[in-house]
Each structure stands twice: as structure tokens, then as C-alpha cells.
Amino acid sequence: MSFTVKGSLTAKKNKNGLHPLTIRYTIGGVPHNISLKTPDGKVISVDKNDFDTESGLMKKTKSNYNVLNNLIRTHSQVLEDVAAASPDKSFKRVKDLYLHRLEEIKAEEVRQAAIEQRENTIVKAKKLHSIFSAEEAVEKKKALSKTLTELDRELEQYKAEGVITELNEEEVEFKKLLLEFPKMYEKQPCYGQYKSWVSNLIEFSQQTNTPLLFSQLDYDFYNKYGTYLMFNRMPKKVKMVNNTFGGQVKKLKQFIDWCIEIKKVKNVNLIYKSYDVYRKSKDTIIYLEDSEIELLYNEYRQQVSDAKKRMIDLTVFQCCTGLRYGDIYASSWVVKNINGRKVLTGETEKNEGNYVIPFELDSRIEEILERYDYKMNHMVEGVYNRDIKPLLGEFYKHYDLYQEPMAYVKERFEEREKLVDFKHNLFSSHCNRRRFINYWKLQGFEDQTILDMLGSKDSEVLQGYKKKDVSTTSKVITTKLYQIRMLSAMKEEQLSLQD
């Protein structure tokens, strides 16, 4: 028998006029509510105006909506998991299993807290011991109350009590697999990205004293992970925004999937599967307009050094093909002749799709490839993203373009920070891919056709590259109407010829 699980409110108010927050388990069309409670056992109640009945979650009007939504999601997941695994899906049986599982989770949290406390003691002990190097001991022993002998005796006691030990087995396994995972991409351009992700994850763990455990991948871990990378990073480290944090989360989920499917890791908290992967904010999408590309390639290119010419060629080539920078750098494509027409094709490094780029899309594709003997590995993506900004800055200044800063938004979780900067400072290789997608969308191409050309499978990713302002939407609609009218006129002409 099928069942559903969802956040809900009871119809009956409490004496304060608030509605108890519950998880609703519906089986055979009959709903049953389980109240959500605080750690000290009090039923959580909220104003019904702060609750969205459709999604079963709190609205953003509630100050602590994020905390409550995490609670709803976590308990819903626990209830759903035990119900799915149980042959007897009656409410009484499922509720008993749910409460038993909560007790298990609570016991695990207590165990984990003890582990963290022990590890913090280890860190303090090691720091204390490191103060007293042989060179410093003579100078400092008079100023400190404890002698080296006393400290050594204390450290030995820590060892005897089991305080100073290695990491627990689960974290050892996590870190071992974490270091192994990027090696799969060692010969691919994205290898550096995976190494950087590993470094960021370890940095987060060390700076926040958060253990890396498969069993602890809950919403609390997700929130701590995002809060650190976007708000609280150590000095000289760039604070991420939603879309860059989304990239980190995507790799984390990919890593855990690999651990489960390939390495057969058990005891994984499956809540990680529902972690949000943020995309690029729609209102900060920029790219080179056609007039800019023409001016950059046909005129400005003739006035610059060979190094800058290569960078311009890379930019125009990516604008014309829409390929990811990693696939361009790999240059592992082949040219096929299909029905007398040349096509650039190859496997994408990111999702193992196959891109198909007809040379007929733009004459500059073949022209640029022949200029470099079909090898476009001039510079890694990080160098390109760094150097394209000043080049475009000089280009815009030379032609008096975009000399006023433009508004853009940085998003971190639900926070939106409105900023201004010059267009060239906001530019990266992703902008070239956006140009390709938006250009062909304006020409009337369907999403699936664009996805097929790029070798992509995820239409949701495509939406992140599209510009959604009124002007662009209007152009797309106008193009569609023109095509419809042309087809209608052609049909009428054919009918008149038949008569």
C-alpha cells in the first residue's frame, strides 16, 4: 500500500492560538500526525500564516524558518525510510519504528559528541606539548607553572586513558577515500578542480572542528559547510557565493555516490542526496554581444600581441562552439564528415556525453582550429579567467564601451548582496558558453537541440545559462512567431500550387 510523508499543521490550535507542527503520515487515504518537539520535549507550534501547506515547509516570513525546515526534512526522511523498509506499513508499526530510529540517532549523536570532545582534548594536548620544544624549554620553564617532566607525565597519562589515539575508523576511511577520489581525473583538465574541492573540504573540517563522517551527512553538516565557505572562511581565502558553493556540493554528492556504489561504504546518512545544489543567479548572466565579438575578432585582434591574439581566439572559439573550457583545453575531438558536412565531435569530460558541433554554425570555428593545428590547449582555465578581464578592460576602453559599472547580485543562501562593477571584471569562460546558448535560443533552436550540440543531459543546467530579462524573452517569442508565420505561408503557397 502506498503512503506519503509531509510536514503539516494540526487543525486544532493550542491555548496561545498557534498550531502544533507535525509530520503527517498518510496511509490508505487516512492521515496520521506525529508532533515535532524541542530537545527538552516541548511541542513546537507556529502561526499558520508562516506555514506553506503545499510544500509542507515553513515560509521565509518565520525568522528561524531554515532551522524548522531542516527539522521537518530530517524527521520526514527518517519516517519515510522506516516506512519504506517495513513490510507492515500501518501507522502504529511505522510510528514505533520511527521512535526507535530516533533513539538510535540520539545515541549516535551522544557517541559522536564524546568523540569530538576527545579529539578536541587531543588537539589541546598536542598544542600544549608543541609549546615546549627543546630549544624553548630553557627560556620558558621558569615562567610556566608546569615543568617539561610534568607535562610529559601528563601526556603519558592521556595515552594510558586512551585520550590520545588515532581518528576513529569511520573518519580514517572517509579521508582515505577522499584523497583517492580525485585520482580518477588525474589525466583530465578537471583534475585541479577536484583537488581544490578536496582541499576546501579538509579546510572546512579543520577550521570548524567538524568530523568528516559518512553517518553525519545531515542538514546540520550542509548548513555548517555552506556557512563556513560563504561567510566564515579563514583570512586570504575567497568567500564563495551560492553557485560556487553549489559546485562544491555537487562534487561532494558525486564523491559519496562513488563511495557507496564503487567502494561499498555502509552507514551513510542518505540525507546528503537532498542537499541543494545552487545554480548561477539569473540576474547576473553576462556574455559578449555579437557586435562585441565582431569588433574584438575582426579589428581589435589585429592590434595586440600574439599572446592576446590566442586569448581572443579562445574566447571567440568558445562563443561559437559553446564547449566547456575543459573540453577545449583537452582538444581531444575528432572531425567527422557527415553527408558532406564537417562536424566537430568528442566526449565531454564532465558528464561523458558527446558534443556535436557542425562547422556550419560559424566559419570561425574551422578558421581558428586550423590556425592552431586543432590544438587549443594554450592556457589552463584559471589563467584564462584571470587574464581575460584586463584584456577586455583594455578593449572596452579602446572603443569606449561599458565605461559605467553595472549592477550585479551575490547570493549566499537566502542573502542577496547588491553590488556594482565593470563588465570585464565579471567575465569568465562561462560567459562564452552563455553566449552560445542564448544566441541559438534567439535563433529559435529548441532546448533539446542545444543540449544535443553541447553533449549535455541536464536541461536544468541549461536554464542557468539563459538570460531571462524582458528583452531577451521578447526576442525569443518574436522569432518563434516569425517561424510559425513563415511555415503557415509556405503551406498556403503549396496548397495554391496544388489547386
From TrEMBL:
Q: Which InterPro entries match?
A: DNA_brk_join_enz, Integrase-like_cat_sf, Integrase_recombinase_N, SAM-like_dom
Please indicate which superkingdom the organism of origin belongs to. Answer: Bacteria
Q: Where is the Phage integrase SAM-like domain?
A: 189-258
Where along the sequence do coiled-coil regions lie? 99-161
What lineage is on file? Bacteria, Pseudomonadati, Bacteroidota, Cytophagia, Cytophagales
Q: Which GO terms describe its biological process?
A: DNA integration; DNA recombination
User: Which Gene Ontology MF annotations are present?
Assistant: DNA binding
> Which keywords does the record carry?
Coiled coil, DNA recombination, DNA-binding
- Family annotation (Gene3D superfamilies): 1.10.150.130, Intergrase catalytic core
Quote the Pfam families the UniProt record gives.
Phage_int_SAM_5
Which species is this UniProt entry from? Pontibacter virosus
Q: Flavoprotein as a keyword?
A: no
- Signal sequence range: none
Q: What is this protein called?
A: Integrase-like protein
